[in-house]
């Protein structure tokens, strides 16, 4: 976004009015011959809602526009809005384009009617295929299309969908055909993605152009999302159903949008391991035991849902989940097997089916298509390979080719292979009339500033089933190609997204989600899945580990010269410096204990190949946070991003001790800010207890390690000073004791003082309180093993004296703390199908 507008930087803004500015932007705009365009009609005149948008934009100077999009880029980065390309584990910044796709309200009304009709048609086909099969019997649909697609799931034949509907969410990829009318390029019924991206795009642009939404009367989205949430629960057995969003995990290419939707709609984000079947019903494994799931919005393909009856290799689904669909105890969006109607082979027969089932022709057409499994269709395809586009008849289930369309007519070099494929397995292919995608305006840098250029696009439109029928979202998810020869069928590098604005003629109200009906007042935080509790626990531990390494680095820099350019010759041999280096080496933060000071600090702070470096721990924390996006605030994510940036140093460069100390101090400030956000802004529900438990246990373990190294029986005054520095207790110690650092007073302050927030005793007190607030396994009043261990650790610290905590006792205390961490994990985060789980001893809810 920013790069596209960079040409306006440094150029003196000519004194021109809004009309002159728009004229300059569009002076060279030339759609490609034969391509329908959103901005200019066949007569070359501006069309639709684009003049309204451009006139409004023309009221801003290019530096003003640039400033707004720079702010949008910053918000995208700070909020961690990103995406993954299929097969790539890296996260890429969200590629939001500079201009929305704008459509007049009157045109949108007609388009919406076509979407609703098509959704009804797909519902009717699915009901027939999995029911009576009259379409095949009457010759309206070839049996080979149904039986030949991998999306036809035989175990679901004859199963009536709970709630009575196969589809609750329908999406269609649209573009304009050669005649300028909208047409459907692909139907999306399996597990349509893009709804969360559309929401993120809208939120970003609403911050960037808040005045535009009011001035241009842009239709709002919250009412649609409220209706969608209500529709997810249609058919549920319980009045107040628990709705879950099933994801394949944080490495899914669409996980960020799934987390955004779960957070916005108040859904429980779960993975397959979070779910279990008991007594014919689906339940969520939570730290409070099994909790029933009434509705499931699945974002994994049907085949992976149930390894018992579908794909036995699946590790994403839930064994036996189809049983819940058969007995009606679970409603699902969308019903497994609904991906069948995504098959391109259906296209030649849809109009006939619509006339038979709906009593009317299709309102939205599609590119003219021939199924090669039909003899006439095959003959036509073979005779016209030079002018047709071939594509798979059934959408591939996974991989980068899921939405791939073979671009254009068959090339001479490919003819032999294609001819052989059509001869051997003609029913695997369809042939379509080759037609380039329609275009919309995008900004590019020109010699005199911004210019508008035509760019190919595809827009995905969504419809949801509500208690009152189908409702179409007044907007969509638009993908725009930066190159004319790249089709934006799927999101990848070189493709940008765009918001979709439907412009009304009248002012539009701006309702907030949840205002349609007042919910029942409650003060519970919701149940926490065991996997999420595990992630929060380790998020806390990794953050504390990173902080401990940073404090060690700062202590070393200060002990050898105060990190301000002081002569440090000879200071490396002090007991304190040697102990600091040895501990950093033991923790894996540095590769050798005899490194030069600056190199040691750089490696310990930013070494990516050092598993114990501060950056490695922060990256591990960020990975845990990525799996918890639905539970972390935007502010917390921004602090994590800043923290990672502070520690992203080029380890090949030379830095002074002063520069590295400055980085370390800023990183500590960010960690303090994150702790403050957790303490002040996070609800005191189960999730808060687990992140605090992780922090407190790790801090106690690290403080014990510090005491072994710097407060042992041979500790020098310098070592004791380092100990106080590592525990941030110098000021408290100076106020309490007039003399210098002495062994027993230092030990008492950092180990046994219940008022020192850095002492082990303080951590033990906090751990005991947090455990007491978590759900118990049984109601027999007997403390659980991990609670008994925590109580024993606290009692030992309360009754001990500073002189008692020699190396033997500190080592035993560290062992007990590690056992406590393992005990909490075994109790609340059990893994494996036969692991002890809380639901075996508690009731179900």
From TrEMBL:
Domain Circularly permuted ATP-grasp type stretches: 100-481
Record region (Disordered): 1-43
InterPro entries, alphabetized: ATP-dep_Glu-Cys_Ligase-2, CP_ATPgrasp_2, DUF403
Signal peptide range: none
Biased amino acid composition, Basic and acidic residues: 10-23
UniProt xrefs under Gene3D superfamilies: 3.40.50.11290
Residue ranges of domain DUF403 in the record: 528-829
Highest taxon, organism lineage: Bacteria
Annotated PANTHER family: BLR2978 PROTEIN (PTHR34595:SF2), BLR5612 PROTEIN (PTHR34595)
Protein name, per record: Circularly permuted ATP-grasp superfamily protein/putative alpha-E superfamily protein
Species annotation: Methylobacterium fujisawaense
């Amino acid at each position: 976004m920013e790069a596209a507008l960079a040409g306006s930087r440094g150029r003196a803004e000519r004194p021109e009015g809004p009309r002159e500015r728009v004229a300059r932007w569009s002076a060279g705009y030339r759609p490609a011959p034969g391509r329908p365009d959103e901005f200019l009609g066949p007569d070359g005149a501006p069309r639709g809602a684009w003049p309204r948008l451009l006139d409004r934009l023309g009221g801003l100077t290019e530096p003003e526009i640039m400033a707004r999009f720079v702010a949008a880029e910053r918000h995208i980065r700070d909020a961690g809005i990103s995406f993954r390309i299929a097969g790539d584990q890296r996260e890429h910044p969200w590629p939001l384009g500079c201009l929305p796709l704008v459509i007049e309200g009157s045109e949108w009304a007609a388009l919406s009617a076509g979407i609703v009709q098509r959704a009804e048609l797909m519902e009717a086909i699915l009901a027939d295929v999995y029911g009576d099969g009259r379409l095949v019997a009457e010759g309206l649909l070839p049996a080979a299309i149904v039986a030949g697609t991998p999306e036809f799931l035989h175990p679901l034949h004859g199963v009536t969908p709970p709630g009575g509907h196969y589809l609750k969410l329908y999406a269609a990829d649209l573009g304009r055909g050669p005649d300028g009318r909208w047409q459907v390029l692909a139907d999306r019924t399996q597990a349509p993605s893009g709804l969360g991206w559309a929401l993120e795009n809208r939120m970003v642009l609403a911050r960037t152009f808040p005045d535009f939404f009011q001035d241009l009367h842009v239709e709002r989205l919250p009412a649609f999302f409220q209706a969608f949430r209500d529709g997810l629960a249609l058919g549920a057995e319980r009045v107040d159903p628990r709705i879950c969003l099933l994801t394949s995990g944080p490495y899914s290419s669409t996980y960020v949008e799934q987390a955004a939707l779960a957070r916005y709609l108040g859904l429980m984000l779960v993975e397959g391991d979070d779910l279990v079947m008991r007594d014919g019903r689906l339940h969520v494994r939570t730290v409070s035991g099994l909790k029933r799931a009434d509705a499931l919005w699945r974002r994994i393909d049907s085949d992976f849902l149930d390894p018992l009856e579908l794909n036995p290799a699946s590790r994403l689904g839930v064994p036996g989940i189809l049983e819940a669909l058969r007995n009606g105890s679970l409603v699902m969006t969308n019903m497994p097997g609904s991906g069948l109607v995504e098959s391109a082979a259906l296209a030649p027969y849809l109009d006939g089916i619509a006339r038979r089932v709906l009593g009317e022709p299709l309102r939205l057409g599609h590119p003219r298509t021939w199924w090669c499994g039909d003899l006439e269709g095959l003959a036509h395809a073979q005779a016209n390979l030079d002018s047709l586009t071939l594509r798979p008849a059934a959408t591939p289930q996974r991989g980068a080719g899921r939405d791939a369309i073979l671009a254009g007519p068959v090339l001479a070099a490919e003819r032999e292979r294609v001819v052989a494929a059509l001869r051997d397995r003609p029913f695997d292919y369809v042939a379509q009339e080759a037609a380039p995608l329609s275009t919309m305006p995008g900004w590019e840098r020109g010699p005199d500033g911004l210019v508008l250029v035509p760019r190919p696009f595809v827009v995905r439109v969504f419809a949801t089933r509500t208690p009152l029928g189908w409702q179409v979202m007044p907007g969509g998810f638009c993908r725009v190609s930066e190159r004319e020869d790249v089709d934006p069928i799927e999101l990848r590098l070189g493709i940008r997204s765009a918001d979709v604005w439907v412009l009304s003629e009248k002012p539009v109200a701006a309702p907030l989600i949840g205002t349609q009906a007042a919910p029942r007042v409650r003060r519970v935080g919701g149940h926490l899945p065991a996997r999420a509790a595990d992630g929060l626990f380790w998020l806390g531990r990794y953050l504390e580990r990173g902080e401990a390494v940073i404090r060690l680095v700062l202590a070393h820099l200060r002990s050898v010269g105060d990190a301000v350019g002081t002569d440090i010759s000879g200071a490396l041999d002090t007991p304190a410096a040697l102990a600091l280096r040895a501990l950093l080496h033991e923790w894996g933060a540095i590769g050798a204990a005899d490194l030069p000071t600056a190199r040691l600090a750089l490696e310990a702070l930013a070494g990516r190949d050092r598993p114990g470096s501060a950056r490695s721990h922060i990256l591990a924390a960020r990975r845990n946070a990525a799996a918890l996006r639905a539970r972390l605030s935007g502010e917390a994510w921004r602090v994590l991003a800043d923290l990672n940036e502070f520690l992203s140093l080029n380890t090949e460069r030379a830095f002074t001790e002063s520069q590295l100390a400055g980085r370390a101090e800023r990183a500590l400030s960010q960690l303090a800010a994150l702790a403050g956000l957790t303490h002040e802004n996070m609800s005191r529900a189960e999730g808060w207890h687990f992140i605090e438990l992780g922090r407190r246990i790790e801090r106690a373990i690290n403080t014990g390690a510090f005491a072994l190294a710097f407060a042992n029986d041979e500790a020098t005054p310098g070592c004791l000073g380092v100990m106080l520095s590592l525990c941030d207790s110098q000021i408290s110690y100076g106020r309490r004791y007039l003399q210098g650092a002495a062994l027993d007073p230092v030990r008492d302050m950092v180990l046994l003082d219940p008022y020192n927030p850095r002492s082990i005793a303080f951590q033990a007190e906090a751990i005991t309180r947090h455990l007491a607030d978590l759900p118990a396994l049984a109601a027999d009043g007997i403390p659980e093993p991990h609670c008994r261990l925590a109580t024993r650790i606290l009692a030992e610290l309360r009754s001990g004296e500073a002189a008692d905590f020699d190396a033997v006792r500190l080592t035993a205390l560290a062992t007990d703390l590690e056992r406590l961490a393992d005990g909490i994990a075994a109790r609340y985060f059990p893994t494996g199908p036969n692991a002890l789980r809380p639901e075996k001893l508690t009731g179900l809810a």
